[in-house]
Amino acid sequence: MQGMEWSIQQLARLAGVTSRTLRHYDAVGLLAPSRIGAGGQRHYDAAALARLQRILLLRQLGVGIPAIRESLADASDAEALGHHLRWLRQERDRIDRQIRAVEHTASAAREGGVMDAEQAFDGFDHHRYEEEVTARWGADAWRSGDDWWQRLGEEGRAAFQQEHADLAAGYAAAREAGLAIDGEVVQGLVQRHHRWIAASWQTDEPDLDAFAGLGDMYVADERLAAAYGGPEAAAFVRDAMRAFVAARRDG
């Protein structure tokens, strides 16, 4: 691949993005063309392809443009892609373990067998997020969150997870019933959600912009969307969170 070049149209097609996106990445300092030919035609070499892959991996994780720019400056593309490759392999292993765990639970329920508690929760260790949290928000954010999680103890962690399950079920029921996102019932759920987030962020009052941004992440990240029943359900939650934020600001 050394010495090869791709036009902006070719690279856009290969990466599944638009030429406009590539020009935007250049404008914001993420990805400059390797050279500009006659008539202003942009060309990209193998190093640019590696950098674009890195950018798209970070975007897939929901990382914003400013944070991506910092990340690109902190490490070489080869080092960063090696980090992402390790994380992706760990994530693949975790998902395989979760599939086996759920298959075990479903089989026990279907056949009336005995469920192995340890096997049922194989692959659900919160430490799988360490590399991702560190990449997004820094090592201090991970250490602070992990310390809080450990201090909760087993009962506290179970209660925290149960509250999320109850919130997701409440949102699903409200959506199924056609309730308005700015109505009393749904906004009551968002109020609980806001308190739940406050606990995990270790603050009395989560920043409104950050709370609304979290709703956007629920839709953008398929793993987070799955926790609420899929993209459409996650969009309902996001819209309800936006309504909550708007009401807080108006008030």
UniProtKB/TrEMBL annotation:
It comes from the Bacteria. The keyword NAD does not apply. Keywords: DNA-binding. Pfam families: MerR_1, TipAS. SUPFAM superfamilies: Antibiotic binding domain of TipA-like multidrug resistance regulators, Putative DNA-binding domain. Residues 5-74 form the HTH merR-type domain. The keyword DNA-binding applies. InterPro entries: DNA-bd_dom_put_sf (IPR009061), MerR-type_HTH_dom (IPR000551), MerR_fam (IPR047057), TipA-like_antibiotic-bd (IPR036244), TipAS_dom (IPR012925). PANTHER family: MERR FAMILY REGULATORY PROTEIN, REDOX-CYCLING DRUG-SENSING TRANSCRIPTIONAL ACTIVATOR SOXR. This is TipAS antibiotic-recognition domain-containing protein. It comes from Agrococcus versicolor.
